Request: fold
Amino acid sequence: EAGVTQFPSHSVIEKGQTVTLRCDPISGHDNLYWYRRVMGKEIKFLLHFVKESKQDESGMPNNRFLAERTGGTYSTLKVQPAELEDSGVYFCASSPMRLPVDYGYTFGSGTRLTVV
Amino acid sequence: AQSVTQLGSHVSVSEGALVLLRCNYSSSVPPYLFWYVQYPNQGLQLLLKYTTGATLVKGINGFEAEFKKSETSFHLTKPSAHMSDAAEYFCAASSVASGGSYIPTFGRGTSLIVHP
Reply:
């Protein structure tokens, strides 16, 4: 089966610009998670979708970040306007609805965002 | 809130030597525990996981980890390091969150360096 796909793999934008990251989960996976890793620090949870609904968005840093998952398939994460501290690697993961901890979480390769 | 501590941001071993990467979690309720590995320019790959049952868990590539409830630890080991093991390793813990979902919490990662 195809894995979790993220694009772009790299993005360099100027402060104040807008960037949209995309994640295509494994087909049939209802759970979709976004994480971010700032250089040298832990991978931090941003939010969790169950199908098209936001189950938990407690990790979203501020209202410059907007995540959507229309139709319960792929998800986008938009940063507008981008700030320097938004730089990092954004990971997406998916898991099936039933027993995600038993199955594990499948991660994409990440999008490396650099804001200059 | 759940937290995961990985001791040592870098661990250096010689090829053929024992690998020991430390992970401690903070939780009054034993969580589900995971080790992920990230090779350069790739996504996070699941090495092994503990959910229930046997406390010694075997994973891929010869790695194993032991869940010790009394020490709140889940250290990762491999008897003999190989050059191809050089990567970054992340420990994660997952407990049930509000709403019944499981959100993995990650440590800061440990870079394993293998010398010839």
User: Anything to note?
Assistant: The two ends of chain B are 41 Å apart (CA to CA). Chain B has a mean pLDDT of 90. The longest strand of chain B covers residues 87-96. DSSP finds no helices and twelve strands in chain B.
